[in-house]
Structures are given as structure tokens and as C-alpha cells.
């Protein structure tokens, strides 16, 4: 490869670029395509004046990056966080390109956000901020150009404000402009559980292909929020034994199996949606770190990035790790786990149920016709299963780890689309 490789002081972007260049080199991607795919197609910064409740005006910085639209409209959330900047959006946007490509859905990748502390904003200030952000990026978003979604600190409320602003600007309803809307207003049944159901599908297929029994398989699920709870519920339905769960309040260890329904009800009824105070016969309270190290077949980290790292990777007993969260296993941990024979199912395969679910919401919006939850899951599970085996088989045939296999499969589909469409624009 004779291209000048881009680097960045932003760790997330630097890692994304390194992963891309490494895979591109391994697959012998031609230089022109490496140049194209190592840069975003479009990256914009917008200033967002907001009238605050006290009568003052504050100007926030917002961003939207479209990394690639070779396969379809850019798809990716927008987040509200003090650390948001253009480089972070570029890194996350490129990961969305690879995730959508691997998922086999007709989307490219994008990401956006506003640098702000949402805890300092009232609901009406958040609404004005969201509507101003929507108006400022309106020229580049659209049902067939760029479709945002919720991300860190944004949810159904922000999506509805976003949809309403664009619809009013265009003088017609455009429900497909964002996904992650409430079920009552053009959202989709099944979307809430989709990421966790997808994680569980990967765990089940992995165990089956390894000739291990799903029934009675011992699991640890770190993080008991959206992804973790639905992964736990689905694995419980498959007959697996969830021996450990955790959240910010610590670890909950039950060698004979957590009562998942009881734990789910506890979290649902807890004012802060936490496991705090949860107990059942035969359960021991341990620390959040200790739960990762208990004896189990599968560890599914479904909380935050960096959970499995250089410090604890050597002590992990699970033979399989399925990444429900984004980036929970660090590159240093990967290097420790590989010689131990631990198989890691990478995040942008394991948690792609979320974006596949967003695609289903968009399809329903474009058709003005809603599916039942059963129809939704009947479509989601076969796609997740196919995608799992596409990566699994590639990894076996080419003797590479699943993470590298996932990158190679994803990059090839985008590169082929760029080649077929040509380099105009
Ligand atoms: P969430 O906020 O609903 O839940 C996060 C959970 O992690 C909470 O239970 C929290 O208490 C717990 N947690 C936080 N720090 C922890 C720690 N140190 N130890 C143990 N538990 C801890 O978030 P979510 O939507 O479930 O997302 C979880 C991860 O999955 C994130 O990395 C997110 O980017 C990724 N993800 C989510 C979706 C989705 O559809 N929700 C899709 C793709 C990827």
C-alpha cells in the first residue's frame, strides 16, 4: 500500500483508521479505494443558538458526518455529550458504514452530535436545541440521504422533535427521516428488544456451531440496561443459565441461575432502572469487576467500552465473549485472549440487531404499514443468523479472528459498491 496513512490525536478515530488500514492491507484493497474509504464523504459543523429559560442565549457546536453513502443513505445516531467533536463523529460514522455493510442492509454510515451537557438543560431547552440542530443540518438529511437515530443521551423525544421540525420545514410528514421513534408515533414494535435479541442469536449460533449445549450454558451478562436485559431474557427463554449479571451498582452472582424475570421486573420498577437491592435465594453480591471473572461459558459485556482490558483479560474464565456493547474488549485484551483460545464475536456483528431494527422501522415508515412484533422478529433473527455464519465461515476459511473477518467482509461490500458506482462525486 503506497497511500499516506492518516492518523489522529483522537484515540477513537486513530483506532478506527488503524483497523481500516490493517484490514485494507490484508485484503489488498487498491490505493484509490483506500484513499476514498479512509475519509468521510461529508463532515459539517454547525453553530446552534439556543434561547435559554433564563432569557440568555447560548451557542452550542453541532456536527454531522456522512462517512459513506455508497450502499445507501447514511445511517447513524446523534448524541448529546460534552466530548462530542468532529473527529469522534467521523470515527463513529465510519464504524456505522462497516456495521450496516456487514448487516447487509441498504445503508451507508454517519454520525452526529452536539457538544453539551444534557443534564444542565431543561426539557424545553433540549427541545429548542434539537429543533435548531435539525434545522441547521436539514440540507443534508433526508429519508433517502441521511437518517439519524438515538445515541448517547438522546432518545424517542429528540427523534420526534427532529422529525416534526423537518416535516414542518418541508410542509409534509417525513416519518422516515429518523428512527427510534415511540411506537405510538411511527415507531416500530420489536425495536426495543432488537439489539439484545440479536446478541442472544449470536450467542446461540456460536454455541451450536461449537457443538456446545445452549440449554444449561452458563452466561455472565455485564450491564443490565436495554441490551443486557433483552439478551438475558432471550437466552433465558433458550434455556441457558444466566449465572451473573451486573450494572453500575455491582455484580449479582447466582451459580444456580439468576431469576431473569424477577431481575427484569426489579429493574423496571426501580426509580433509576437499577439492580440495586435485588436479591434471590442462593445469590451473592459481588463487585462489578469480580462478576466478569466467575466461571462461565459465555461472557456478554453489554455496558460500556473497555470492560475487558489488559488488567483483567488474563483472569477471564469464559471461553466465548460476545460483545453486546460497542468496544468492550480493548485491542490489548484481544491480544491476551487470542492465545488462550477465547473466541470473541465483535461488536459490529453482535449488536447489529439495533440498526437492522432501525432499517425495519424505516421500511414500515416508507410503506405506511406497521408489522406485528412477531413479523419483526421473524425477519430479524434469520438476518442475524446469516450474518453470524458469513463472518464465522470467513474466519474459518481465511484463518483470521472474527473481528478481522467482520472488517474484511464489511469493507469488501462497500468497496465493491464504490467500484460499481464509480468515483463521480
Ligand atoms: P443502557 O444505558 O440502557 O444500559 C447500560 C447498562 O450498563 C446499565 O445497566 C448500566 O448500569 C450498566 N453499566 C454502566 N457501567 C457499568 C459498569 N462499569 N459495570 C457494569 N455495568 C455498567 O445502554 P444500552 O442501550 O443497553 O447500551 C449498552 C451498550 O450497547 C453501549 O455500548 C451501546 O453503545 C451499545 N449498543 C446499544 C444499542 C441499542 O440499541 N441500545 C445498539 C448497539 C450498541
Could you please describe the fold and organization of this structure?
Helix 3 (86-103) packs across helix 14 (402-421). The longest helix is centred in the C-terminal third of the chain and has 25 residues, at 373-397. This protein has 14 helices and 13 strands. A hairpin with a 5-residue loop joins strand 1 (42-51) and strand 2. The two termini are 24 Å apart. It has 425 residues and is α/β, with parallel strands linked by helices. It is globular and about 60 Å long. A seven-stranded mixed β-sheet has the order 10-9-8-7-11-12-13. Strands 1, 2, 3, 4, 5 and 6 form a six-stranded mixed β-sheet that branches. Among the domains are: 40-173, Leucine Dehydrogenase, chain A, domain 1 (Rossmann fold), CATH 3.40.50.10860; 194-350, NAD(P)-binding Rossmann-like Domain (Rossmann fold, 3-Layer(aba) Sandwich). Helices cover 44% and strands 16% of the residues. The structure holds nicotinamide-adenine-dinucleotide.
